[in-house]
Each structure stands twice: as C-alpha cells, then as structure tokens.
C-alpha cells in the first residue's frame, strides 16, 4: 500500500488488516455533560508528553468534579488511567492551601500568612547572598510547569536572584536526547509527528515502555502494525508493547550503543546504506563507517547478551524498508553514555536515508507533560530563551536587551541538578528555591540527596501537595494545579498546546507566576516582572524566542484555541508551524547537513562483581507518574498499583509475593517478588514512584553522562537474596493537623505486587 492511501487518522485501519486496537470499539465521539449547570472546559492532561486532549467537568459552583475524553487529534477520545484520574487532585483533601514555615528543621511546621512567609524567604535570600555571594543561592524548576513558568524560572533566577545556579528536573529526563539532537541536527526536538508513524514500514522503539509510560501513543504503534509495519522493540524487559513486536531484542541494559553500532555494521556490509543521501546531506560518515567496522554481530552478541543472528535480522528489516522510523525514550538515555546511545540511533536513521519524510524519521518521546517545552526557554543551566546558549556572547546580548539588563549582569552557566546537590553537600550552595520537583524521590542515591538538602541553611518549595522534598523545607508555598491557571506545553512532537483554566484556586493559593513576581518585587526587580498572568509572560516569551531555532513568535493563545496545537518553529502569525523537520535532508546546522558522530561503547559506571553480579534497572508503571507526589494520593491509582515490587525471573526460585532483598553499593530494601519470564534472568526491575525506604533511587548510582549530566538510572550492579519482611510503604506527607486521605491509603499496606500481570509468565495472585 502506498503511503498516499494510508489513513492518517489512527482510529481508522485499512480494510483486511488485523486490528490490534479497539477490540471493544471506540467510545461515543459526541459525549457531552448530561446534567444542567455543568460546563466542559477543553484542556489537556497534566501528565506525560503525549498531552492528550480532555474536557474537565465543572459544576455550577465552579468546581472541577470530573473528566471526559476529548476528540483531539492527538488522542482521539482516549485517556490512560492517569488521565482519567487527574482531575481528582484539583480539589483533593491533601491540597496545600496556606503557607507553612519554620525557622529550623528541628521545629514543626506552622501555618503562616503569605506576608510572613515571603518576608522570611526574601530575608534569607538577602542574608545568604550578602554573606556568601549571589551564587550561594540556587533554584530548581520543573518540566511539568507551563512554558510560561519555565521561562519565568530562568529569568527569575538570573535577574531577580542574580545567580548562575538554576536547573530543572528535565535534567533527569530528556537531556541526553537533547544533547544528541543538537550535535547531529543543530536543533532539539523530534523530527516527525506521531501521525507519520502510521506511514512507516518498519518501526523501531528503543528503551521505551510505550504501553505503560505513554499509553495513548500505543494507538500509533498498533496503527502502524495494522497497516503492515514490522515492529522492533529494544528493551531488557518484555514490556506490553514488546509482546506485540515482530522482533524483541532483550539486550543487557547499558549495551545499547554496541548493539546499534553492530546493526549499522551489518547494514554497511550488506550494502543497505543510502549512499546518495549520505553524500549530499551528511558529514562524518566515513569516520562512523570506520568505527562500526569494529562491531560485528558476534562482538555485539557477547557484549549485549543476545544472539548474533538477531543483530542481522534487525539490520535487514530496518535497512531494506523504504520508510523506517526509530523512536526512543529513557531506556537508552539514562546512562553515562546516554548522549552517545542516542547518537547511534541517529546514525542508523541517517545512514539509511530515513529522515524528513512521512513514515521515515527519528523521534524522542518526552516523559513529562512539558518535557519538550520545559527545556526550551531558559530554566536549564546552560540555556537562555529560544534555546540560546548562555555561553554565546551574541545570545547573551540579545536576551539581556529583552530583559532590560546589561549583558555583564547576566550570570554565566550553572551546573546540573545532581551537581547542585553535591555543591549543597560541600556548602557552596547555601539556599534554594524549588518549583514543581521532588528530588527526594526522583534523584539517584537518596542518601546523598538527603544529606545535600539537609546542609542548606534555607530551602523554600512551591507545590500544591506536600511532597517528600517539601516536607524537609523551611518554607512551603501553596500554588495552583494545572486546572487553576492557563498556559502552554509542547508535547513529544513539539506541538504547542493550550491548557485552559477550569476553576479558581482555593482561597489562600497563588500561581507560581505570582509568587516569583512578588519575590522579585521584594528583591527590587519588580519592574522586570510586571506580569499580570500567563498571557503577559507568553507574549514576552514569544518575543524572546523570535528568530531562534525554537521560534514561538507566530504562536498565540488564539491560534492554539483555533488549531488545537502548532508545532514550532512558527516564525510569523501566518506560518502554519513545522510538524516535520529535516525535509529534503536539511538540518539546522549552518551547512544544513547531519553531523554524524563517532561512538565507542563503554561499560556502565557501577562495576559488576561476585558480590553484585546482576543488573538493576528502573522505570515507570502505568498507574503512577514520576515521584508519585500526585498519583500516590488518588485512590483508584493506589488500588491499581499500591506499592513497588521487584521483578525477578523464575530461575531465581522466588514465588510471587515473597520478600526479596535488593542490595546495591548504596543500600538495600525488601520488596515483594513479581515473578515473570518477561525479564532477563540477569536483571531485576523496580519502579521508582515511591519514597524511602522503598525508593528505587535509594539504590541507584549518581554517576552522570559527562555531556548531558543525566544520571545512570537504568543500570547498576545488584544482588538479590531472600528476606523475612517486606519494607512498609510510607503514606504521602500532609500538612500539620491532617491525616493522609484514607481512601487512597487502604491498598498501600497490601504486601503483594500488583494484581495485573506486568509481563508474559507473570504469576497471578490467587
């Protein structure tokens, strides 16, 4: 079937193909509220980078009380378990509604007025910076914030705090892909829209548990299968999407670059490269070709722990397809060679000419809702708005002029999120403001993180629930949920979408924008933060991005409402946006070519030994999100997945639910076994959504990729052994005087792993 006749609606499959989706049919496409005095507010989900369209149901009192799927062309009426339950956090009993403060961690929190909390915060900023210098105070943002707020985080840190120390939790998510994209293409985003997946003949997914981490994206994966595409999944675990694959490469974690180098080796040897494309559109090909010559299938088989024949099989399927695509996520990015892993996938697509065409290209799947937009406009330590480099004198002058400061006033580049924790330990950073992050759960090597935060003389955290990190702070400022403000996010396609305000925030709650602007005013910089709300910030963001590779100038709230989303770059008000990059083989480098990069495989940072002979890898599960600060409070999600577990192969002799001690060089914990043939015998898997003492990140190593500074979450040396008693799961923190919402806590004490099978051969409860 030629791609001209492929239906671009993932809800429609060609006649005669096997439909992997929709066994029960689509839901009604015309759902409406069926009661009076109710309003449906169109918006998008607050969770992952798919950014599904939804309606929030608002009652006659102006309160959000439900959700309905929206027939947006991203998700076509589909929502995952998290999306269906997301509305419940808006009016949740655990919500923070008044500032909390204490002058010492030895004291309990007490409620305070906004005036007192802000006066104390500003006084501490001035005290610390006055005694230790401006860089003694830092700021950490988040990639679940609207882009307007991520823009403000970067500006606030550099103009109000005047510090170089600002970074964000997207450092734990997408920066390896970003680094590879910029090296190869000169631009940081996925090259193709989701709809292009439906036109491919071969779809390769590396290190992405799409079915659980990005469930609604699965419609595009299965839609490609319906249309005859061959599906290849590269993952140590047989995930839900891997079970439907034609080829599942269950390689050893930490060996991805060796595998992709070997695949390219076979493609070269069998003459499957696109020599015309390489000659016209690339640099560095000869060096890459010489490097992969040293990675024959036999070498990859030894390194990766897979059959050599499988390397050849993948190479032939991918290399002979007229239209092939590769998408990847954290599985190949959370490594000390995360950037290089991504580059080997780019090399594979480039060498076969699979760039810039419908059904042929390369994409990265963002984990957080604004994982793409959150790294575009300045909260990353080395970037300014529009993806400008803070080290580039021209870029510095441009942004300084927009912000109304001298270029000399603009701080230099700071350090990464994990490096900032190390600086806290050393006393180099004495104070911190955190917005929309929970490092006590999300950063590796919990003991180091806790020690770093404990060394801070002052710590303020902005959130709408009391996270584990906020519970350790001096000041906690209650801010809005996504449904109580408006703003934009950019999804995994770089499609900018508009979130709409559905209800007024509870009394006593402020927006993150208001808080940053008010602190800036008290620090004497109010004139540069005279924003009434998100719209004012977005107008400045548009101007600040104009003329850059990440150009938002032509995007307005009105256009987003009308179109349902616009992919950047969009340089003018009459520009349609750019859903597909690299058409005609042109990149954003000055020479418009793909700069192919040489990659040599090297082993992970945590060495194996007789004491630690196995591999621990971590990841997400369908019911929860990131640190779990939101999802661990929602009863339906807690009931579905009440606690973490350790996935182990049957060969180790454990029975389902038995206590297993998981031990690394950083600590140990006891979790119930989930026995499954869907994992390699030399691996164990632990999901990371829970806090200490059952935190996966109490075990992981804080080794970083030297270029992206992303931690190596996906591989560390481990041993497992029988134990007697499973470690308890703590309830989420709540403000003083309250108890954890009981409806969400009953299942938390369940000692067994989840009821739903996580993979082939999983023992059911019974």
UniProtKB/TrEMBL annotation:
PANTHER family: NADH-QUINONE OXIDOREDUCTASE SUBUNIT G, RESPIRATORY NITRATE REDUCTASE. One of its GO terms (cellular component) is membrane. PROSITE patterns: 4FE4S_MOW_BIS_MGD (PS51669). InterPro entries: Asp_de-COase-like_dom_sf, MoPterin_dinucl-bd_dom, Mopterin_OxRdtase, Mopterin_OxRdtase_4Fe-4S_dom, Prok_molybdopt-oxidoreductase. Residues 38-94 form the 4Fe-4S Mo/W bis-MGD-type domain. GO terms for biological process: respiratory electron transport chain. It comes from the Bacteria. This is Assimilatory nitrate reductase catalytic subunit. It comes from Kitasatospora cineracea. Residues 368-390, 724-766 are annotated as: Disordered.
């Amino acid at each position: 079937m030629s791609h001209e006749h492929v239906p671009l609606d993932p809800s429609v499959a060609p006649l005669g193909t096997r439909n992997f989706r929709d066994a029960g049919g689509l839901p009604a496409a015309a759902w409406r509220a069926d009661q009076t005095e109710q309003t449906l507010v169109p918006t998008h989900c607050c969770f992952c980078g798919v950014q599904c369209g939804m309606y929030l149901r608002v009652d006659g009192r102006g309160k959000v009380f439900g959700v309905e799927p929206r027939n947006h062309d991203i998700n076509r009426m589909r929502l995952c378990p998290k999306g269906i339950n997301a509305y419940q956090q808006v009016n949740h009993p655990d919500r923070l509604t008044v500032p909390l403060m204490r002058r010492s961690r030895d004291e309990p929190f007490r409620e305070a007025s906004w005036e007192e909390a802000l006066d104390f915060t500003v006084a501490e900023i001035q005290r610390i910076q006055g005694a230790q210098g401006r860089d003694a105070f830092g700021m950490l943002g988040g990639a679940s914030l609207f882009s307007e707020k991520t823009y403000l985080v970067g500006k606030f840190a550099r103009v109000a705090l005047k510090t170089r120390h600002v970074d964000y939790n997207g450092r734990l998510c997408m920066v390896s892909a970003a680094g590879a994209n910029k090296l190869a293409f000169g631009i940081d985003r996925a090259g193709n829209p989701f709809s292009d997946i439906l036109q491919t003949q071969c779809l390769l997914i590396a290190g992405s548990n799409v079915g659980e981490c990005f469930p609604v994206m699965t419609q595009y994966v299965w839609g490609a299968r319906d249309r005859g595409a061959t599906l290849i999944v590269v993952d140590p675990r047989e995930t839900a999407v891997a079970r439907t694959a034609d080829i599942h490469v269950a390689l050893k974690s930490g060996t991805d670059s060796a595998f992709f180098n070997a695949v390219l080796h076979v493609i070269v040897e069998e003459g499957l490269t696109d020599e015309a494309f390489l000659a016209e559109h690339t640099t560095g090909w000869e060096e890459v070709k010489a490097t992969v010559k040293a990675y024959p299938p036999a070498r990859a088989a030894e390194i990766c722990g897979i059959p050599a024949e499988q390397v050849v099989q993948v190479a032939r399927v991918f290399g002979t397809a007229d239209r092939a695509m590769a998408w990847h996520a954290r599985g190949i990015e959370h490594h000390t060679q995360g950037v290089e892993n991504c580059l080997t996938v780019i090399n594979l697509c480039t060498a076969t000419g699979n760039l810039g065409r419908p059904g042929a290209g390369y994409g990265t799947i963002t984990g957080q809702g604004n994982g793409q937009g959150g790294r575009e406009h300045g909260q990353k330590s080395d970037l300014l708005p529009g993806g400008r480099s803070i080290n580039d004198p021209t870029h510095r002058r441009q942004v300084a002029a927009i912000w109304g400061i001298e270029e000399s006033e603009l701080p230099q580049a700071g350090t990464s999120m994990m490096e900032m924790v190390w600086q806290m330990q050393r006393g180099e950073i004495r104070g911190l403001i955190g917005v929309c992050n929970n490092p006590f759960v999300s950063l590796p090597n919990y003991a180091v993180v806790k020690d770093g935060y404990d060394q801070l003389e002052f710590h303020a955290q902005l959130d709408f629930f009391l996270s584990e990190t906020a519970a350790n702070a001096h000041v906690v400022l209650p801010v809005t949920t996504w449904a109580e403000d408006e703003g934009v996010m950019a999804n995994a396609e770089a499609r900018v979408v508009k979130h709409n305000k559905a209800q007024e925030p509870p009394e006593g709650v402020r927006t993150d924008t208001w808080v940053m602007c008010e602190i800036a005013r008290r620090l004497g910089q109010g004139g540069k933060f005279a924003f009434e709300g998100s719209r004012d910030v977005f107008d400045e963001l548009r101007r600040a991005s104009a003329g850059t590779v990440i150009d938002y100038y032509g995007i307005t709230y009105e256009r987003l409402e009308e179109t349902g989303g616009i992919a950047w770059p969009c340089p003018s008000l009459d520009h349609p946006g750019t859903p597909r990059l690299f058409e005609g083989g042109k990149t954003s480098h000055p020479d418009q070519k793909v700069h192919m990069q040489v990659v040599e495989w090297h082993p992970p940072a945590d060495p194996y030994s007789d004491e630690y002979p196995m591999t621990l890898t971590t990841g997400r599960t369908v019911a929860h999100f990131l640190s779990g600060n939101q999802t661990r409070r929602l009863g339906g999600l807690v009931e579905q997945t009440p606690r973490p577990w350790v996935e182990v192969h049957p060969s180790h002799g454990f029975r389902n639910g038995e206590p297993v001690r998981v031990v690394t060089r950083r600590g140990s914990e006891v979790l119930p076994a989930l026995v499954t043939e869907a994992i390699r015998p030399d691996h164990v898997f632990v999901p990371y959504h829970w806090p200490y003492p059952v935190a996966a990140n109490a075990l992981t190593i804080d080794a970083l990729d030297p270029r992206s500074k992303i931690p190596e979450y996906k591989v560390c040396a481990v041993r497992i052994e029988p134990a007697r008693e499973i470690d308890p799961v703590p309830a989420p923190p709540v403000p003083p005087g309250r108890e954890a919402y009981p409806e969400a806590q009953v299942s938390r004490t369940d000692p067994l792993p989840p009821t739903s099978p996580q993979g082939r051969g999983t023992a059911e409860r019974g």
